[in-house]
Amino acid sequence: MGQYHIPVNITKKEFLDPHMFGDGLKLMEFGLSGCGTLSGLTILLSNANGRGGGDLHSENPIIGHWAGDQIVIAGDYGDEGEEFTQNPSENLYDEANKNYKDVSAEVLFALLEDKYVCKTYKNEMQYLLSSTKALIEDIILLHNTKENKLPLLMGSSGDEIWEFKSNSGNRVYKTIKHANGNVTCNCPGWTKNKKRRCWHTTAVLNGTAETQSVSHSIKGIQTDDGQRLLEKMLKGEIPCVTK
Question: Contact at 8 Å (CB) between 112 and 136?
């Protein structure tokens, strides 16, 4: 069957999942990939990206995040209780998968900010796993944002949706900002009001919905990782791209 491997950062307790980049888990499956796991590892280790031609066109803070750290390509046939593990009954591959943070989505997000890399992945979409394809589609959707905020994306797949709890707390209402700029809500205050206005739509229009709603999403986001990246963008933890 062969041995599976993943790049592991022992210092920060993080790892990369080759499947997320469209690669196999065997050493030479991702070791020989032209634009995948090793590209992700490269930008993680880079300490001077963006200073010359041929660099990745991105200012994402994930670039250089692993520079200077202790990195191991861990295999699932590794010895239990090996030097880098805390649990004597597990090897590093198993320990990382169970307890370390997978930063693959953040790294892929940065890679796809570069138009060349994005074009390369688009050309390879037919060969990717459905889960990887869905994540890449989510990231491309998120990259259609501007000026560090989330404007409407084109078409119904880009509608923004907020969920608000009712005053009684027994119900959850959905407020939608549509691609044409209209804001609708399914609460009684909006549906029964001839002026089509409620405090939920007012919060969305005033830009205060983030602090008052229980969730915020974009219709069309297909993966949990895509939703997590959206939340990080809303919090300002990763930059939105201006194109």
Answer: yes
| Neighbouring-strand partners of residue 72 | 8
Q: In this predicted structure, what is the pLDDT of residue 240?
A: 63
Please identify every stretch of the chain with a pLDDT value under 70, giving residue numbers as ranges. 1, 144-158, 240-243
- Token output for 131: 């889960």
pLDDT value of position 242: 44
Task: Report residue 182 as tokens.
Answer: 């209209």
Contact between 220 and 158 (Cβ < 8 Å): yes
Report which of 177, 175, 172, 159 is spatially closest to residue 219, judged by C-alpha positions.
Answer: 159
- Phi first, then psi, for residue 78 (nearest 5°) are -65, 160
Half-sphere exposure of 46 (CA within 13 A, CB side): 23
C-beta of residue 91 within 8 angstroms of C-beta of residue 74: yes
Are 36 and 95 within one domain?
yes
52 lies in some domain: yes
Last residue of a domain, one of 142, 169, 190: 142
Extract the tokens encoding 239: 């930059």
SS3 4: strand
Q: Which residues, listed in sequence order, are joined to residue 177 by a DSSP beta bridge? A: 160, 183
Structure tokens at 209: 């919905």
Query: What tens digit of pLDDT does each residue of 178-195 get?
Result: 877 888 888 888 888 777
